[in-house]
Structure formats: structure tokens, C-alpha cells
TrEMBL record:
<dbReference type="GO" id="GO:0055085">
    <property type="term" value="P:transmembrane transport"/>
</dbReference>
<dbReference type="Pfam" id="PF00528">
    <property type="entry name" value="BPD_transp_1"/>
</dbReference>
<keyword id="KW-1133">Transmembrane helix</keyword>
<dbReference type="GO" id="GO:0005886">
    <property type="term" value="C:plasma membrane"/>
</dbReference>
<protein>
    <submittedName>
        <fullName>Transporter</fullName>
    </submittedName>
</protein>
<feature type="transmembrane region" description="Helical">
    <location>
        <begin position="138"/>
        <end position="159"/>
    </location>
</feature>
<feature type="transmembrane region" description="Helical">
    <location>
        <begin position="97"/>
        <end position="126"/>
    </location>
</feature>
<feature type="domain" description="ABC transmembrane type-1">
    <location>
        <begin position="101"/>
        <end position="313"/>
    </location>
</feature>
<keyword id="KW-1003">Cell membrane</keyword>
<feature type="transmembrane region" description="Helical">
    <location>
        <begin position="246"/>
        <end position="266"/>
    </location>
</feature>
<feature type="transmembrane region" description="Helical">
    <location>
        <begin position="41"/>
        <end position="61"/>
    </location>
</feature>
<dbReference type="InterPro" id="IPR000515">
    <property type="entry name" value="MetI-like"/>
</dbReference>
<keyword id="KW-0812">Transmembrane</keyword>
<dbReference type="InterPro" id="IPR035906">
    <property type="entry name" value="MetI-like_sf"/>
</dbReference>
<keyword id="KW-0472">Membrane</keyword>
<comment type="similarity">
    <text>Belongs to the binding-protein-dependent transport system permease family.</text>
</comment>
<feature type="region of interest" description="Disordered">
    <location>
        <begin position="1"/>
        <end position="34"/>
    </location>
</feature>
């Protein structure tokens, strides 16, 4: 074998096609591959374009129309006169907006981290030998599976009035009536606890999936090195499930901020607007006060805040992936 042949074989492999073997007048192999790639990309683009255009119209039109309404003195049937940023100015100077913002923040933080802590704890428990684990898992999934209308109705029956079972039991034990949904403070606590109760199964499933991907050999090696359970949790478990944790936080944050039925069916935003979140405030502003422009402005402010926090958490996911 000559030196050029040896060099060609070493560079491209023994079976690689040779430029000298192509038919006279045929395009070079690299150029043919490039044309084929462009043709395939163009075909895929043509096939995908109608669906993308349809989705853009379906999702884009309400956003654009909502943005128009937020800058007008809108009603439910017309856009009204253009007001510029007056609706946003009114929103940021309205005390009820900041009160709703504060409770939305409390509701979201408790809902996200409370459900995550309970879900992670149960996911770790279910990794051990638990008698009747299958039935236990099914029961734990019920708060997430049962429709929110049913679960809020059940909670109202249990705690809403002094004649409900739980207040009667507390009164029989010699304590004062708790007024779960009548007092502003206890109403806030009740609504937050309901959110944790209804959401922990989702977190449990997310954390169980993440824990299943952690190599068990890491725990065995750390045990041999004398690491305790707390050290295993903080040094092995949490770092290895970091990506799934951040994803679950983003999803649960969106669920909490946009959770209208839980609050509206439990308290209606009361008493004295103490449990009114931004999504409930936007609903009241549009459909009860008929101030459509202001209500849509509240919704856009809420959306912008959600996007901002989601971007921050997504960057944390990228850091975990590159670590």
C-alpha cells in the first residue's frame, strides 16, 4: 500500500468513500450531505409551520388583546377609551393590590416549601420497608386525585361553622371555638394548610422519581465512611435531586399563584379580604366590579412576576446541570 493510500485510510477509515471513486460530474460528498440536510430541514419546517402558526394565533391573540384591554378603560363588551398606563398606576397605588400581593407571597411560599417538605419526607419514608406500602401510596395520592370542588366541600363540612365536626370536638375538649374560616388569621392558616394538604402528593411523586435515580452505592460508601443520615441527606440526597427539586418548585409556584378555586371555594377571599390573592383580586375586579382594564393589568403584573421568578429558578437548574 502506497503512502497516500495509508494516509487516506488512517484519516477516513479503510471503508471511507474516496473522492476519486465518485462518478464524473457528480457533486462532492460533503456538498451532497449539505444539500440533503437543508432539504430535510425545509421539509420539516413546512410540515411544522401550520401547527406553530395555529398555536401562535390561539395563544398570542388573547395575550395581545389582553394587553390592549389593560391600556384602555375596557368593559366586558368593548375596549373603551385609551388610558395608557393609568390602569397600571392605579394598580400599584391601590392598597388592596399590595394586601393581595402579600398574601399571595405567603400562600405561595407555604404551598411550595410546605408541600415539598412533606412530599420529600414521605418519599424518603416510602423507600423503606413500610407495611401495606401499596395501599399507603394510594391513600396518599387521594388529596391530589380528588377534584378540588369535592375536597373544599369536605373541608367546609369539617371546619366551616361551630357545628362542624372538628370545632365541636375542640369545644368538647374544653377549648374555645377556633373559627377556622371566620377569623382572618386562622382563615389564612387554614387556606395555607389546605394547599399543602392538596399539593404534597405531587411533590411526593416528583421526589420519589428523583430519589429512584440516585445511585444506592453512594449511600453504602458514605456509610462505610461513617456518614450519618443527616449527612447523607444534605451531602448526597439533596444535591443529586437538585434538578428535580427546582423543576417541582417552578411548577408548584405556578400552581399556587394561579390557584383560584381552592381559595374562592373555601373562603371567597374573606373574611375582610384577608385571604384574597392576586388571582382572586383580578377576578373580582373584572367580573364583580366590571373594571376590566384594571383587572387585566393585575393579571399582567402577576404574569411578569411569575416569569421573572421562573427564570431565576431555571438558571439554578442550569447551574445544577453544569455542576
Amino acid at each position: 500500500m502506497s503512502a497516500p493510500e495509508i494516509s487516506r485510510t488512517a484519516t477516513h477509515g479503510a471503508n471511507a468513500p474516496d473522492e476519486s471513486d465518485r462518478a464524473p460530474g457528480a457533486a462532492p460528498i460533503g456538498r451532497r450531505h449539505s444539500r440533503r440536510g437543508r432539504s430535510r430541514a425545509l421539509t420539516l419546517l413546512v410540515l411544522v409551520a401550520p401547527s406553530v402558526l395555529l398555536l401562535a394565533v390561539i395563544n398570542g391573540y388573547p395575550v395581545v388583546y389582553g394587553l390592549v384591554q389593560s391600556t384602555h378603560d375596557s368593559t366586558l363588551i368593548s375596549s373603551g377609551a385609551w388610558t395608557g398606563l393609568a390602569n397600571y398606576t392605579h394598580v400599584f397605588t391601590d392598597p388592596s393590590f399590595w394586601s393581595a400581593t402579600l398574601f399571595t407571597l405567603i400562600f405561595t411560599v407555604v404551598g411550595v416549601f410546605g408541600s415539598w417538605a412533606v412530599g420529600l419526607g414521605l418519599a424518603l419514608l416510602l423507600r423503606t420497608s413500610v407495611p401495606g406500602a401499596t395501599a399507603f401510596k394510594v391513600l396518599l395520592m387521594l388529596p391530589w386525585v380528588v377534584p378540588v370542588v369535592v375536597s373544599t366541600t369536605a373541608w367546609n363540612w369539617l371546619i366551616a361553622t361551630s357545628e362542624s365536626p372538628i370545632p365541636k370536638l375542640i369545644h368538647a375538649l374544653g377549648f374555645a371555638d377556633p373559627m377556622f374560616l371566620s377569623d382572618p388569621t386562622t382563615a389564612k392558616v387554614t387556606v395555607c394548610l389546605f394547599k399543602v394538604w392538596a399539593s404534597f402528593p405531587f411533590m411526593m411523586v416528583m421526589m420519589s422519581s428523583a430519589l429512584a435515580a440516585v445511585d444506592h452505592a453512594l449511600y453504602e460508601a458514605s456509610s462505610l465512611d461513617g456518614a450519618g443520615r443527616w449527612q447523607q441527606l444534605t451531602r448526597i440526597t439533596l444535591p443529586n435531586i437538585g434538578r428535580s427539586t427546582y423543576i417541582s418548585w417552578i411548577l408548584m409556584m405556578i400552581f399556587c399563584v394561579n390557584d383560584f378555586p381552592s381559595i374562592y371555594l373555601l373562603t371567597g377571599g374573606g373574611p375582610a379580604n384577608s385571604t384574597t390573592t392576586l388571582i382572586v383580586l383580578a377576578y373580582r375586579t373584572v367580573f364583580q366590579n366590571f373594571q376590566v382594564g384594571t383587572g387585566v393589568a393585575i393579571a399582567f403584573v402577576l404574569t411578569a412576576a411569575l416569569v421573572l421568578v421562573s427564570v431565576v429558578l431555571y438558571r439554578q437548574i442550569r447551574k445544577v446541570e453544569t455542576a
